[in-house]
Amino acid sequence: MKRLLDIELQKLWKNRASKVLIIAYFVLLSFIALIASIKFEFGAFKLHIAEQGIFNFPYIWHFNTWIAAILKLFLAIVIVSMMANEYSYGTLKQNLIDGMSKREFIQSKFSTVILFAFSSTVFIFIMSLVLGYSFSSYNEIGIVFSDLEYLLAYFIKLIGFFSFCLFLGILVKRSAFALGFLFVWNIAEGIAIGLMKWKLFKDTNIAEKVSQFFPLESMSNLIKEPFTRLSVIKSAGEMIGGKAFEKDYSVHFYEILIVLAWTVIFVLMSYKILQKRDL
Known about the structure:
The protein is mostly helical. The chain has helices at about 1-15, 15-30, 60-70, 75-90, 90-95, 100-135, 140-145, 150-170, 175-200, 205-210, 215-220, 230-240, 255-275; strands spanning about 40, 45-50.
């Protein structure tokens, strides 16, 4: 496995575009720390973002993983381009000629997916610890290391999303078309969910129960938006609507299983396509 991963990393690092995107991704992740310096002043009204509790333990695990997940498209471009380059430069055919099996080829790509997801998760873990200990009002060990399930959800979410991108890269062969397909799929899921909510299953929660099995929606459900958990937002909700926001922000085991199931499906489908395709 290490040999296969070394081959993939060598390919990526020799590609200037991939190298730039990977570096840019981790640089942008570090920019989450800049949120702490954001201040708004409107006359007598002053708002310092860091003082609103976004970097408090254990809330920071939820906030940082949700924000970081938005940036996953950078690595998605790398993964899709990684597959497109295999076809464009003929390295896939050359690897097979040199003795690599199609199963090993898929294993090498999936190992890269896992490495990207793991590296990103470790980066967010370390950055969150630094920011939390710098700004959090709560530094007790029991509080600091509670809600770490958001890191697990983040890791699984990235693996699922990158596996989908890998599948699209193998299916479509061209990075621009694969990313376009990803965009269209996202819109199609949104339209399908909207039709179910407003036309097929009005005034019921059936649409939500069905849509949780959609690939991109299932990944999105792993980490819900964190902003309505903030006390300032809850207070605003009570003032406007008369009651606080009621929402389940937990990471559920069945949601993780759904994304893992899609991950297995995408990897197996990638392998089947590669098996049947005449290279």
